[in-house]
């Protein structure tokens, strides 16, 4: 049986996986969508909201909230603007040849 102290952390596994060019390419490609989804999940958790309640707060239907949280779809600028207005969160986008980075601050 493996001891807990012998297990790798998520960060250690991620760093190891980033050495794989295919993994790194997919990580870089999906980073913007994942960052947006994680921000929505974090907000909902901090405020004890269901996806439906969050959707009512920001003017979205629950399936749209679920797609946003999944990180499978990049949020549009209009979606980010809607979230910013409803939640009072500033989003900063950095667009470079390497891709798009999303930062949020409360």
Secondary structure: elements and pairs:
Elements: H1 10-17, H2 21-47, H3 51-58, H4 62-70, H5 77-87, E1 90-96, E2 99-105
Antiparallel strand pairs: 1-2
Helix pairs in contact: 2-4, 3-4
Distance between the termini: 44 Å
H-E order: HHHHHEE
Give the overall shape, derived from the CA principal axes: globular
Q: How many domains?
A: 1
Strand content: 5-15%
Structural notes for this entry:
Helix 2 (21-47) packs across helix 4 (62-70) and helix 3 (51-58) crosses helix 4. The relative contact order is 0.13. A hairpin with a 2-residue loop joins strand 1 and strand 2 (99-105). The chain has a single domain (11-105), classed as 434 Repressor (Amino-terminal Domain) (Orthogonal Bundle). It has a two-stranded antiparallel sheet with strand order 1-2. The radius of gyration is 16 Å and the shape is globular. The chain is of the alpha+beta class and 106 residues long. The chain contains five helices and two strands, in the order αααααββ.
